[in-house]
Design brief:
Number of helices: 2
Shape: globular
CATH topology: Alpha-Beta Plaits
Structural class: alpha+beta
Radius of gyration: 12 Å
CATH class: Alpha Beta
Number of strands: 5
Number of domains: 1
Helix content: 25-40%
Order of helices and strands: EEHEEHE
Length: about 90
């Protein structure tokens, strides 16, 4: 299955993180599965002790827009979180 999705946000706006941070190979596989469901996603490195990659979807101006996309992804079995873009 898919990990929980998160909405990210910051000065740059909000985005939806699909799944948990993961090694590159696993993140690429997740990204391919999400793309196969018709969603445009991108991979982004996440800073921390270990190198991890996250799958992100969209750039939203408001929390409501980002939450709506996270809800849509959840209905497709793709849990997500709204997060601040850094």
């Amino acid at each position: 299955g898919f990990g929980e999705a998160v909405v990210l946000g910051g000065g740059e706006g909000l985005t939806v993180r699909v799944g948990d941070p993961a090694p590159l190979r696993i993140a690429v596989q997740l990204g391919e599965r999400v793309r196969a469901k018709g969603h445009a996603v991108r991979l982004a490195a996440q800073s921390g002790e270990a190198v991890a990659t996250v799958v992100r979807h969209g750039n939203f101006a408001s929390r409501a827009e980002a939450d709506a996309k996270a809800d849509e992804l959840a209905r497709l079995g793709l849990p997500s979180h709204v997060v601040q873009v850094r």
